[in-house]
Amino acid sequence: MREQQLHLLFPHVCLLCRKLLLPGEEPCCNSCRADFDPFNTPAAAEELLRRTIAAHFGEQFLFERGWCRYQFHKKSPLQQVLHAMKYEGLFNLGRSFGRQLGEWISSGADTGNIECIVPVPLHPLKKIERSYNQSEKIAEGIAQSLQKPLRRELLIRKRYTVSQTGLSAEARKKNPEGAFQAAKDVAGRHVLLVDDVVTTGATMAAAASALREGGAQRISLAAVALAIKE
Ligand SMILES: [Zn+2]
User: Fold this and answer.
1) CATH architecture entry for 36-227
2) By CB count within 10 A, which of 32, 109, 200, 223 is most buried?
3) Distance in Å, CA 77 to ligand 1 centroid
């Protein structure tokens, strides 16, 4: 009852359809959420992620495990929500996606003893522009859910890359190459690398390569969504 009264005093509306939200529904209502397109199983998501990332790695390197929760379509409700998360500062949403992803990860049989969670970093200049790193918020949620340490300092972005949006497929592939550098302490560890959306896989591949060069023993990947070619 008390919760209902509070809700009347502070009405929250769905980010997408603007209907009043029920307690626990933030940031969007269950019926809008039902329009997100989740993968049926972690294995199906991993299979597609492997195929996407494979295009960017030589044969000598494969990532350990990979997780994605949703299939990402252009102009979908999920895109609107992720966009709001990135540009409207809804960082609680990032954490909530992260916790959900963490549950999805631990629902599977084997996480391969992940030791730490590392978000794909934004260049410091971009962080000022946008004031926070959405991948870091997702990583926070995952770390909380898996009860593993968040180690954002293990990977830095040393070069400012232009936004991937609007670049040609070829330019997208080249853009993040060599942009990252891993800290010494990454050596010998199993790292879970986290991003919001995997589109071509170029960013993940560049970040993972830096971790590998830094001596990471195993690298697994997690993203809220994986872009589906349409
Ligand atoms: Zn709604």
Assistant:
1) 3-Layer(aba) Sandwich (3.40)
2) 223
3) 9
Q: Taking a C-beta distance cutoff of 8 angstroms, is the pair 202, 175 a contact?
A: yes
Whole-number Å distance, alpha carbon 25 to ligand 1 midpoint, is 9
Cα–ligand 1 centroid distance for 18 (angstroms): 6
Q: Token pair for residue 63?
A: 């990532």
CA 229 to centroid of ligand 1, rounded, Å: 26
Residue 20 alpha carbon to ligand 1 centre in Å = 8
In sequence order, what are the beta bridge partners of 68? 223
Ligand 1 mean position, distance from CA 72 (Å): 18
CA of 51 to the centre of ligand 1 (A): 33
Amino acid of residue 136: E
pLDDT, one tens digit per residue, over 180-202 is 999 999 999 999 999 999 988 88
Domain ranges of the chain: 1-35, 36-227
pTM higher than 0.70: yes
HSE-up (13 A, CA, CB side) for residue 177: 8
Q: Tokens standing for 163?
A: 């936004």
- Give percent above pLDDT 70 in the chain: 80
Most confident of 93-102, 170-179, 180-189, 197-206: 180-189
